[in-house]
Write a structure and sequence with these properties.
Blueprint lengths: L1 E4 L5 H14 L7 H13 L4 E8 L2 E13 L4 E11 L8 H15 L5 E3 L6 H9 L24 H7 L1
Parallel strand pairs: 4-5
Antiparallel strand pairs: 1-2, 2-3, 3-4
Helix pairs in contact: 1-2
Length: 164
């Protein structure tokens, strides 16, 4: 297996892998245009993150997507493992371990002090996989709000200025 950084030429293959990932997740569904847009944002702006791919004989069979942010608690750069997937026909062959280890090493080399990830609570095999690599469960509970053009109840900037 070859491990390398993704390029813009890889986007169609990465979208196919993300489709596989989102088909097995409870909360998400694939949207090629959204995945293509997001992947291009990362690949064209390394400040946002890094995408690691694993390929066999030139075919991309897995990926890990690291996104960067800053932890004020740690006082340093940290990473979010946003997406990690290996094609079903190559699972349980050690490729996931190789890709994840490369992503961890990349985050370390990039100066990150922590990697955080989310996985479906019902995906017990993924949880065991990450725990084998040193990840531990957090007592933090993820919450989210979707911001889109239909979100009309956001406070205005002048309302926010009163809070700040």
């Amino acid at each position: 297996m070859e491990i390398r950084s993704a390029t813009l030429d890889d986007v169609p293959n990465l979208c196919a892998l993300l489709k596989l990932l989102f088909e097995q997740e409870d909360e998400f569904s694939a949207n090629y245009l959204h995945q293509e847009s997001g992947l291009k944002l990362i690949l064209e702006n390394p400040f946002y993150g890094q995408i690691i791919v694993g390929s066999v004989e030139g075919e991309i069979v897995g990926m890990a997507n690291l996104l960067y942010t800053v932890s004020t608690f740690m006082g340093k750069k940290v990473a979010i493992l946003e997406d990690m997937v290996v094609s079903p026909e190559h699972r349980r062959e050690g490729f996931g371990d190789l890709i994840l280890n490369a992503a961890i090493l990349h985050a370390y080399d990039a100066g990150c002090g922590r990697i955080t990830l989310l996985t479906d609570s019902a995906n017990h095999s993924a949880i065991k996989f990450y725990e084998r690599s040193g990840f531990t469960k957090s007592t933090m509970t993820p919450l989210r709000i979707i911001l889109d053009e239909n979100h009309t109840d956001l406070p205005s900037a002048t309302e926010n200025e009163q809070v700040c």
